[in-house]
Design a protein that fits this description.
Length: 464
């Protein structure tokens, strides 16, 4: 791998984001930048780049509309952000655009370039950054999807490494910025009572469900080219799985943690059609931008195993879909069933329950005796922690702050991304038939059959 341009130590001294007039900037980036300014964590030039025929004042107006809609307008914080903003209007394929960007960067020696643009434009922008000198000493942040399959991910990595060294590449996955996802890792390794149980001797199965009550919400053209596997399984849910299954790292250095996450994926064999159920909700093909004969999945259920000393023989189930009964992401770590020693009552299996979205919840499923003279039991859920702290950093705010500081721990490394694509590659491109399901249900019946040998799905209850 080509080493690329060496990175200067320290924080970035300018933030450039391509796609400044786009939807992602409007919904996520401007609110995150205002939040950073409010906390005093943003004091560097912020240069937007787009081809819209706009002026800087028009971009500032767009930014204000963004924070009013999605972030809550804060006059002082927005004033600081507005004062830091600059703008370059031009075509990404035009060398003059990048010459102007280089001029705007002035004395900046460690700029961070955030590509909040369609992946089809990544290669063009990366080459222009290199040719113009804007990549010298710089970092680059890339939005998902990072590739469309294994081959395209490898090709894109080769393009990126022609200009940037791997340590300067930040592949952003907003799930890794969620405090609830980070809490999975913290809860595992900060509590000694878990480690003796966290293995194949005590764990019977693991379930990860990402349910969305809504449909494609006007994004039919994008979603029909993507599907659930590419949109959330290959990135978000394999990241959640790696946090659950990884070995304790020998330290908190970012590379040590990322090493352990990559090892999890290396222990998973590629999916085969028998491991996978794909579904599509009734009415999906009527969505604007969706092909009339579309075979894109809006639901997927998968079964996998991890070939490691800790997890050999333990089935992991992943389920994700749109048009389901609730919006929530839950993890269930189901323990082996205790022996039945009470007459007439076979205690159900204990479990750990992690709610990742919309709010944090950690709970334990346990059995207790019912009131009365008889030895009869009932299952209860003991909540350990539950909260939604508005004072916490949002996912994009935290990830942008980390990238500016050069903290790579919550970003995906090259080997991790390529391992994730290796796992899902065999079941892309309609390799598995699609089953129709009714909106408001838990997907096609075949998904229940997939997990039936392990007791069925734990359907997330509505958020409390």
């Amino acid at each position: 791998m080509k080493e690329g341009i060496a990175r200067s130590a320290g924080s970035s001294d300018a933030l450039v984001f391509f796609g400044a007039t786009g939807d992602l900037a409007h919904k996520k980036i401007f609110p995150a930048l205002q939040a950073l300014a409010k906390r005093g964590n943003l004091d560097i030039p912020v240069v937007g780049v787009a081809k819209a025929g706009w002026t800087l004042d028009q971009l500032r107006a767009r930014a204000r509309d963004s924070v009013e809609r999605y972030g809550g307008f804060d006059p002082d914080a927005f004033g600081r952000l507005s004062g830091l903003m600059d703008y370059v209007d031009g075509d990404y394929s035009d060398a003059a655009t990048f010459q102007e960007l280089r001029r705007k960067l002035g004395d900046a020696k460690r700029p961070m370039h955030y590509l909040a643009i369609p992946p089809s434009l990544f290669e063009t922008v990366i080459h222009r950054l290199g040719e113009s000198g804007c990549a010298e000493g710089a970092r680059i942040v890339l939005e998902k999807p990072f590739g469309h399959n294994l081959v395209t991910a490898q090709t894109l990595n080769s393009v990126v490494h022609g200009i940037f060294s791997e340590e300067d590449v930040f592949r952003i996955d907003h799930y890794l910025g969620k405090n609830t996802v980070q809490n999975l890792l913290y809860f595992r390794f900060a509590n000694s009572f878990l480690e003796p149980l966290w293995n194949r001797q005590f764990v019977e199965s693991v379930q990860i469900t990402m349910a969305e009550k809504f449909g494609v919400e006007g994004r039919g053209n994008f979603y029909d080219r993507t599907g659930a596997l590419r949109d959330v399984v290959q990135n978000h849910l394999l990241q959640v799985l790696s946090n659950i299954a990884m070995e304790p790292p020998p330290g908190l250095d970012a590379e040590l943690v990322r090493d352990e996450k990559a090892k999890v994926l290396k222990g998973i064999r590629p999916f085969q059609p028998r491991d996978v159920i794909r579904g599509q909700f009734r009415g999906y093909r009527d969505e604007p931008g969706v092909r009339a004969n579309s075979q894109t999945e809006t639901f997927v259920a998968l079964r996998l195993e991890i070939n490691s000393w800790r997890w050999k023989g333990v089935p992991f189930y992943i389920r994700a879909g749109k048009g389901l009964p609730v919006t929530a992401t839950d993890v269930i770590v189901k323990l082996r069933q205790p022996p039945a020693i009470f007459a007439g009552f076979s205690p159900p299996a204990n479990y750990f329950h992690f709610r990742v979205t919309p709010d944090l919840m950690i709970a334990v499923g346990a059995s207790v005796k019912k009131a009365g003279d008889q030895l009869e039991g009932q299952q209860v859920e003991l909540v350990i922690s539950q909260h939604s702290d508005a004072a916490e950093m949002g996912a994009y705010e935290e990830l942008l702050f980390d990238a500016v500081q050069g903290n790579s721990g919550r970003f995906a490394r090259q080997d991790y991304v390529e391992e994730a694509w290796r796992i899902v590659d065999p079941i892309l491109n309609d390799a598995v038939p699609v089953h129709e399901y009714e909106p408001g249900t838990w997907g096609p019946a075949q998904a229940s059959a997939l997990i039936a040998p392990d007791g069925g799905w734990f359907d997330p209850p509505p958020p409390r």
